[in-house]
Design a protein that fits this description.
Blueprint lengths: L7 H16 L3 E2 L2 E5 L3 H9 L9 E5 L4 H4 L6 H14 L20 H11 L4 E10 L22 H4 E6 L8 E9 L3 H16 L4 H5 L5 H19 L2
Parallel strand pairs: 4-5
Antiparallel strand pairs: 1-2, 3-6, 4-6
Length: about 240
């Protein structure tokens, strides 16, 4: 964004942009004249096929300063190529995408697939939703997101991948794409948060601030167990 001094307002604007790219109206499966009435419910239906896996992450492109936007042009092929690689390599934004990471070859035995995933830092998905907004949206080719190698073996791509579209542009972007993914996106940050919280709990940091309001140490332990199970479940995909 070329911001010299980053403020909370700048951070909130990025967050609002990401959320807006998902929750602004899109057409429903009924056709181009019917908008979705329940986007949160549709998100759950499309992306959460199992109660043990409920962590969703967002990626959005393009996202840039207005000055840069004035000199930029985009194609659906280019945007979707970058968005797919952001998915499989777990990149937060377009800059710094690891193009060496590739999906595991189909037909590998499960053990081979797991070791290959770890070696290449491949991000396995349970379900993905791509939201396209802008000009010529019907011409976008999404076959790359239907590759079975992107997904866990217990869900077929026909059930694991969905797309929402609208020809109405988002903000000043002629074409834009958002990805909401139920995948291993959040393993690393969640694991880091749990680790830091464990260390603070073990050193009794701030515990008294909670116990005086009736929260017991057993409540902390139950929460740690719950989150560690979430991390373990996603790590074993």
């Amino acid at each position: 964004m070329n911001i010299k001094q980053i403020s909370f307002s700048d951070i909130n604007q990025v967050l609002a942009h990401q959320l807006g790219s998902v929750f602004q109206p899109t057409y429903s499966a009924e056709g181009p004249f019917h908008y979705r009435r329940n986007p949160l419910g549709d998100l759950m239906e499309n992306l959460v096929p199992h109660p043990e896996f409920k962590m969703l992450g967002i990626r959005n492109i393009p996202q840039m300063s207005e000055k840069s936007l004035a000199y930029s042009t985009f194609t659906w092929a280019g945007l979707l190529k970058h968005l797919r690689q952001m998915l499989i390599s777990n990149a937060k934004m377009e800059e710094g995408i690891d193009w060496q990471v590739q999906p595991p070859l189909s037909g590998l035995p499960p053990l081979g697939k797991v070791s290959l995933n770890k070696e290449l830092r491949f991000n396995t998905s349970i379900a993905n939703l791509v939201i396209l907004r802008g000009k010529d949206v019907q011409s976008a080719d999404l076959e790359g997101f239907k590759d079975p190698a992107l997904y866990t073996s217990w869900l077929q791509p026909v059930n694991a991948f969905n797309v929402w579209k609208t020809q109405r542009a988002f903000r000043k972007y002629e074409k834009s794409a958002a990805l909401v993914s139920n995948s291993q996106f959040l393993i690393k940050p969640l694991d880091m948060i749990v680790g830091k919280a464990w260390n603070m709990f073990a050193s009794k940091a701030y515990i008294h601030q909670y116990t005086k309001f009736g929260i017991e140490e057993e409540d902390f332990l139950a929460s740690f167990t719950l989150l560690e199970q979430v991390v373990a479940s996603y790590r074993n995909l």
